[in-house]
Amino acid sequence: MEAKQAGSLLPTVLSLVDKAARRKQELNERLLAVLSPALKLGDGTRDHSMSWAAAMVVVVLLVVPHLHFPFERLTFRPVPRSVGVPPLHGAERQAFFRGGRVPLPPVEELVLQRLSVPRTVSATYPQWEPVLYKVQEGDTLFGIAARFGLDVRTVLWANESLAKAPDLLSLGQELVILPVDGAYHTVAPGDTLESIAAKYKVPVEAILSYKGNDIPDPQHLAVGTKLIIPGAVLPDLPPKVVNTPAPRRTQQVRVANPQQGSGSLIWPVAGMISQGPHAGHVAVDIAGPAGDPVVAADSGTVVLVSWMRYSYGYHVIIDHGNGLQTLYAHLSDILVEAGQNVSKGEVIGRRGCTGRCTGPHLHFEVRENGAQRNPFAYLP
Question: Is 173 exposed, middle or buried (0-12, 13-18, 19+ CB in 10 A)?
């Protein structure tokens, strides 16, 4: 059947080829007739290239519109690719070659589905290593611990300087802050994982499994290595034993016309600010060596000399007039009497650690009309 169809198409193809050859001959004769005048026009001129260019333009304008190719009539019916076409057999194949229509299978319903769009989400990575924190104005040991979500004992025992003197917290001081509650242990000669775990009452696995610890050989710990002991049981701050003088009777006087001060205060003692003003502590703690002289912040009259077993310990209140008073607490010794007039800068006592105290410091308050005020607003 296919051979018979090919035989019927052969005369048609030969006729087309012969027609194309005659058309080519006609085009050659027409082109030669067009170019002959142009070639003669260029003879004897100074610029032959201009003549040739003019001839070519003429050829394009005259010949191209009249070109007709017999093959332009040979067109093929495109097969749609958007749907599947099954193999053609029998009558369907004959219909295809004769230009007929071929029945196509029904097109399936097109369903659009939303594709998941990948998005990059910033991840938070756990902190395994300690960080350094610089003490800022107004910081306290308890406030720093609360900021990092730690027990105050974790911050205290991770810093040797604090463990020795918790009141010596100074601006700019760098503190080691652990990522978790626990101990920061420095491996000493003879230490083993078992002995360290027993010291802090944690299982050995708690030390080994913590990702922040670098323990290449659990049987041989390198001396000086820092280990974080998560969940370590830490002792409270050991109470400081302070030798205080025998309590004396409270002396208090009412002064109608106290000695007037200048209205500007000076620092009552030198040292480091171990605790600044905050809720529940509207005062300034100035830490330093015990026995340092404490002076009156301004001229005035001593209205109170008192002892309290807890809280202030030995303390003095000076009235500066105009409703302004200053309080000096935790003194180791008092050198003035109630009712005594004092001058600005005059020694009134010595820094100590009496009353509720964890280290030698002066607790300094400013009171205006009986209300506690921020001392920084009055000090230079």
Answer: middle
Average pLDDT over residues 192-197: 94
Predicted pLDDT at 103? 55
The single-letter code of the amino acid at 56 is M
| Residues 171 and 271 placed together within one structural domain of the fold | no
Residue 61: give the domain boundaries.
2-74
Confidence of residue 137 (pLDDT cuts 50, 70, 90): confident
User: Within this chain, do residues 289 and 213 fall inside the same structural domain, yes or no?
Assistant: no
CA dihedral angle for residue 335, residue 340, residue 344, residue 348, rounded to 10 degrees:
10
**Is position 172 within any domain?**
yes
Nearest alpha carbon to residue 355 among 265, 266, 240, 272: 240
Q: Where are the beta strands (DSSP E) in the chain?
A: 131-134, 174-177, 182-186, 226-230, 251-252, 272-275, 284-287, 293-295, 300-307, 314-319, 324-334, 341-342, 347-351, 361-368, 371-373
**∠277-278-281 over CA atoms, to 5°?**
75
Q: Does residue 338 contact residue 315 with C-beta atoms inside 8 Å?
A: no
pLDDT band at 240 (very low <50, low <70, confident <90, very high): very low
Between β-strands 182-186 and 293-295, what pairing exists: parallel, antiparallel or unpaired? unpaired
Q: How many domains are contained in the chain?
A: 3
Q: Compute the C-alpha angle 33/38/44, nearest 5°.
A: 135
- Res. 243: pLDDT tops 50: no
**In the predicted model, is pLDDT for residue 242 greater than 50?**
no
The predicted pLDDT at position 258 comes to 82
Is 228 in contact with 246 (CB distance < 8 Å)? Answer: no
